[in-house]
């Protein structure tokens, strides 16, 4: 019996203190925090964990520098404190990174004024990061040759943080933490209905993969369904003072633009910020900010062309980026919180809407709703949910803060000592960005020791599964046993970032992919392979790379590594 099957067996007929609907960042941290304090917890998601909004972020953990524009000082202060806390708790997973903001004649702020803002931001954040700088155009040209400087007024440099792997992997680590503390976790299970009887919720659940039906009871329900919280509330007659509206954002992943590990920031023609963010051998361009009414989104031709036009105007590349350079894309919505009493007021000043989260509790029916939320603020959400659950009568033990963060330094040092003694990093060619030991420790922590043992027994376990994917065979064996991979997309897109850094063609033609499918899915390997590589997915990928005029995509940059800045 696999891990998912064993958890579903515990879920069906189970009685819980808390049933959490949604396995994105809010649901995952709620499950981890509650389970660590002794609550009987179940968390379900109708898709995969982190399978919607939580896998479409910019991978940034930041205090929200741009929120200073709307004078949200308390929000920025709180987010900066959360950022600082996460950097200390996750020294391998989160890294401080410099942002270079290039300010041209289209930018809304002069360099000196932006410098004041970045200094205020640094002070608000307790001067935790490296101090900001004001830069001249000449200095920017020396720091980043890829940035066009002929029209620059100057710029600024300041610090925030980013997730070295992908956002969904970060979220799944909270699911693992919850499992380690005894929580029941099941992906591809949705809430079909729930009825409150005699102070307990009687829930009917449906397996969205097999169609099977399950039942459980819980004293408290936490609605952490992200963009779908309102739908879940309406289906169960839960009334709230807040609601969710949607901001669509997209990212384009292209070959690495700049060699330095630095985020490039620009104002687009509408005076909204967008970024070029490093992702290993790739660069991520985005994000946009567009009001939409449907949480289901995709990258349109207009989205793609707008971002390419904006970045090409601000980079000094020998050849401009074209659709043929796009390796993959992201499209998702931010669930933003508004008060229902505002009516349509949010339409008037869309970009000024707050990015803070809100939590509402209906004590009459023991129902908690989490509106909004950010990766940066995740630990606070976990603490707040615990406080609300206690107020609803569930007894929790003292919080030992064991549900988040990385193992202590002594344990880390022992891992790297063992890795060094066995020559782990000499077993395979080092990637351009990190050693294998660094990557295994960051992704798996204590569980990485078992991988060392597997590689000692069989050095082939240190071989890449797919060329260029930075994912070795030992990880694949571990994932098959412990990571509830149900569909191929779970593996390629969320437990790893293979589908982000490699193109559809590269993945489909990879020799190791069939081996991965056999190990992950057994007799269902071909079914899961065919389920992923569909004509529809192929058409979506080709459309992304197809110029508007319909001619075949051609570009000297395509699949050729790093675009070269003009000399």
Task: Describe the 3D structure.
- A hairpin with a 4-residue loop joins strand 17 (358-362) and strand 18 (367-371).
- The protein is built from 19 helices and 18 strands.
- The strands form two sheets. Strands 3, 4, 5, 6, 11, 12, 13, 14, 15 and 16 form a ten-stranded mixed beta sheet that branches.
- Helix 2 (25-36) packs across helix 9.
- The chain has three domains: 3-54 and 168-238 and 365-391, 3-Layer(bba) Sandwich (FAD/NAD(P)-binding domain), CATH 3.50.50.60; 58-166 and 245-338, D-Amino Acid Oxidase, subunit A, domain 2 (D-Amino Acid Oxidase, Chain A, domain 2, 2-Layer Sandwich); 409-544.
- The longest helix is centred in the first third of the chain and has 17 residues, at 73-89.
- The protein has helices spanning 3-11, 25-36, 73-89, 111-124, 137-143, 167-180, 229-235, 301-314, 378-391, 409-421, 436-444, 448-457, 473-482, 488-495, 498-501, 504-508, 512-521, 525-532, 535-544, and strands at 15-21, 41-45, 60-61, 94-104, 133-135, 152-163, 184-187, 189-197, 200-207, 213-223, 242-255, 262-267, 273-279, 282-286, 290-292, 328-339, 358-362, 367-371.
